[in-house]
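The data are quoted verbatim for reference:
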Amino acid sequence: MKQIRELQRLLGKKTMEVEILREAVEYGRTKKLTALTIAAGGRPLKTICEVLGGVALESRSQVEAAG
């Protein structure tokens, strides 16, 4: 049972990562990609910065200062 919960947690995390990356691709096609834009959609800032890593144009500290 404990292993099932852990697998469900990991699946949820990966699903969120995929959704963030899809949003990044969508924004990137139409306009300048920013972590702040995705964060404005209600995503957790820490997760966005972890998923996008070097792709994000701002560092996490810059995003937090702007928001």
Observations:
- The chain has four helices and no strands.
